[in-house]
Amino acid sequence: MLSVAVSQLELPLVHPFKIARGEETIARSAIVRVDADGRDGVGEATPIERYGESVASVFEYFASHRLAADDPFQLEALLHSGIPAAARAGLDIALHDLIGKELGKPVYALLGLDPAETPVTSFTIGIADPATTLRKLAEVTGHPILKIKLGAGTPSDQVETISSIRARYNGTLRIDANEAWDVETAVTILRELERYEIEFCEQPVPAGHPEQLRAIRQRVRIPIVVDEDALVAGDLPPLYGCVDGINVKLAKTGGIRGALAMIHTARAMGLKIMLGCMVESAIAATAAAHLSPLVDWADIDGPFLTAADPFEGVAYDRGKLVLPDAPGLGVRMKALA
């Protein structure tokens, strides 16, 4: 028999994490555990409030719905499209962990991937006042890639933020507006930022307007990547010719299987791919990292942002993702101090 149990995880953050839509000091997710006759797998559901999901909704789903099969290998039945994205992602990750343990193989090996081909991840700095931003920068200057959240203040304020960072940091810079701008604001800011060697700009305008993304892309030299516009593989065709790349997150795609579909669709469209994460524990971050040899860019920095993650899994070598080689995800509880 295959059974599932859900528990809540609260993760205090190193710093308050602010984006254009809001701010949090504690990240909350749901730990999903599956058991098959004494063999277990662990996953993490990271609900996104913007899409009407919460930890409570994950609990409610599993409390009111039975699993569609008793065999953990029946992934097509177990991970059907009727399951909300966060709950499906938690279940998907747990099943892949269980299957890997059953077969004695890491998840990356189940997918036929080379763990040496992982990319270097960025580290995200949330929106803050100038003094706080520079203090955060001083803490993370060893990271070779930074992603800076923008979207608050005047256009000149936002340009000045990047100018101040670039004066102290010569690594790769990415920016993310989280839907905060309109077309003209985006063009104004991005043209000003072209001189600061920005690798790409993520989601400059609200989702659902591919023609606006196309208009921005035609007028600036900084590549445009989407996040909120690209939840699942079926969202990508309308973006053809409008953007340069997409951000894939397991919390949105419904887990590893959904992410694979999205990655292969993006490749067929000639798009570059970033693999991202939410503010989450090492469980979900490690699950994403197992897919990372398939992508161009990584933004898997959740474990950097949390102050008391009880799990350990993916490691970092000067920003390069280092995958565990244990069966399944390779995630384990940290030893008590």
Description of the structure:
The structure is a single chain. This protein is α/β, with parallel strands linked by helices and 337 residues long. It folds into two domains: 2-104, 2-Layer Sandwich (Enolase-like, domain 1), CATH 3.30.390; 110-333, Alpha-Beta Barrel (TIM Barrel). 33% of the residues lie in helices and 25% in strands. It has helices spanning 55-64, 75-78, 85-103, 107-110, 130-139, 155-166, 183-193, 210-219, 250-253, 256-268, 282-291, 302-305; strands at residues 2-19, 22-36, 39-45, 123-125, 145-149, 172-176, 198-202, 224-226, 245-248, 272-276, 297-299, 311-312, 315-317, 320-322, 332-333. Strand 7, helix 8 and strand 8 form a beta-alpha-beta unit. The longest helix has 19 residues, at 85-103. The model has no long low-confidence stretch (mean pLDDT 94).
Write the layout of secondary structure elements.
Elements: E1 2-19, E2 22-36, E3 39-45, H1 55-64, H2 75-78, H3 85-103, H4 107-110, E4 123-125, H5 130-139, E5 145-149, H6 155-166, E6 172-176, H7 183-193, E7 198-202, H8 210-219, E8 224-226, E9 245-248, H9 250-253, H10 256-268, E10 272-276, H11 282-291, E11 297-299, H12 302-305, E12 311-312, E13 315-317, E14 320-322, E15 332-333
Parallel strand pairs: 4-5, 5-6, 6-7, 7-8, 8-9, 9-10, 10-11
Antiparallel strand pairs: 1-2, 2-3, 12-15, 13-14
Helix pairs in contact: 6-7, 7-8
